[in-house]
Amino acid sequence: MSVNTTTPAEADEFWLFGYGSLIWKPPPHYDQRIPGWVTGYVRRFWQDHRGTPEAPGRVVTLIERSYWRQLTDHHDSAPERVWGVAYRIAPDRVDEVKEYLDIREINGYTIHYTPFHPAVSSSSPGLDPVDPSVMPPHHGPIRTLVYIGTPDNEQFVGPQDPQALAEHIWRSEGPSGLNRDYLLELEKALDALSPDSGDEHVTDLSNRVRAIASREEEQQKLKQNTGQTDSILRAHTPVNVSPDLLQQHHHEGFRKAGSIDEQEETEKKF
Ligand code: BEZ
């Protein structure tokens, strides 16, 4: 005979697990936010976010670990614990919040339930202490609702080359902002949960995006310098010189200047 240990109050409770933007953009009407983790999944940037159909950004989903193991992923390791936060929603607000979440998150995600393990503040230095009255008995797992983009949904992308993925994130923008901001916010939000809550997939993509940002900045600087050289050349070129010649002048400028200088040097010597 199984014994039901859930009190009527607990049965009414609604907890939501966030492992993506919900970590730093909480749902409305929550009265508790607890950092912690779920197991049995791997977090990956494998879900298209169809905000802008021309350039959909890429966002995270959870992949069942047993399924992920069968795939060839360039990021071939993943932490056992997928860190995130659980939100408790006041019972009288549950319908409202579910409706809000359906609008916000629907993009191919479906509803699943998973046990969530609260990180107890005593074992996780730096965390805000959790109100003991909201913790389940013996700090055991809490049943949470979670939105997952499963491999059978249209927006699921699957394994990708990390550099190509980082480039995609770098150039994408959706209705809720730049895709790169989503990635970097996620990295920051994860780091803030616990000293152990980092996710190497997220960190590696963030490092790649930062490297792309530096590369782009260098290219911008180079372009600006080239623009300045062009205007200097234009200022020193007679007005009736054709644009083609000006272009040629630009490309050959240094070589020509070099050869004239050489000629002058030779003339000076003799
Ligand atoms: C999350 O933060 O958990 C999440 C956000 C949007 C869609 C699915 C999950």
UniProtKB/TrEMBL annotation:
Residues 261-270 have a biased composition (Acidic residues). One of its GO terms (cellular component) is cytoplasm. Residues 216-270 are annotated as: Disordered. Its EC number is 4.3.2.7. Keywords: Lyase. Residues 222-231 have a biased composition (Polar residues). GO terms for molecular function: glutathione specific gamma-glutamylcyclotransferase activity. It comes from the Eukaryota. Residues 247-259 have a biased composition (Basic and acidic residues). The keyword Lyase applies. GO terms for biological process: glutathione catabolic process. InterPro entries: ChaC, GGCT-like. This is glutathione-specific gamma-glutamylcyclotransferase. It comes from Rhypophila decipiens.
